[in-house]
Amino acid sequence: MKTLFILNDAPYGTEKAYNAFRMAMALQKEHPSVEVLIFLMADAVTCALPNQSTPQGYYNIERMLKAVLHKGGQVKTCGTCADARGIRDLPLMDGIEHSTMSQLTQWTVEADKVLTF
């Protein structure tokens, strides 16, 4: 089974990204046979930037994404969204790459469940 998570919000400011990654991590832990796909769009593309610094005791999206990747999850960002935010040339976390709407449509067709945050 494949579960696709589509995120639209920035990593901080709301808890949508946090909750999406919490769910993805729980899914991987409790149902290891499920393939987790994450597509970052709009302001969520900034979730993929490395070297995030958060105050002690607060969640860190970079650590959460690394946990998802470590368990075999796939993460891609919308290249057009990255271009619009002027971050296309910034390095992304290891294991994440810019992608296309075509890739998102392919993942959507192949997914058994699609969740949006």
Structural notes for this entry:
With 117 residues, the chain is α/β, with parallel strands linked by helices. The protein has one domain: Hypothetical Protein Ychn, Chain: A (3-Layer(aba) Sandwich), CATH 3.40.1260.10. The chain contains four helices and five strands, in the order E-H-E-H-E-H-E-H-E. It has a five-stranded parallel beta sheet, sandwiched between helices. Strand 1 (2-7), helix 1 (16-30) and strand 2 form a beta-alpha-beta unit. Helix 1 (16-30) packs parallel to helix 2 (61-70). The longest helix has 15 residues, at 16-30. The two termini are 20 Å apart. The relative contact order is 0.26. The model has no long low-confidence stretch (mean pLDDT 96).
Structural class: alpha/beta
CA-to-CA gap between the ends?
A: 20 Å
Beta-strand residue percentage? 15-25%
Query: What is the assigned CATH homologous superfamily?
Result: DsrEFH-like
- CATH-scheme architecture: 3-Layer(aba) Sandwich
What CATH calls the topology is: Hypothetical Protein Ychn, Chain: A
- Residue stretches low in confidence (pLDDT < 50, at least 5 long) are none
For the record, what CATH class applies?
Answer: Alpha Beta
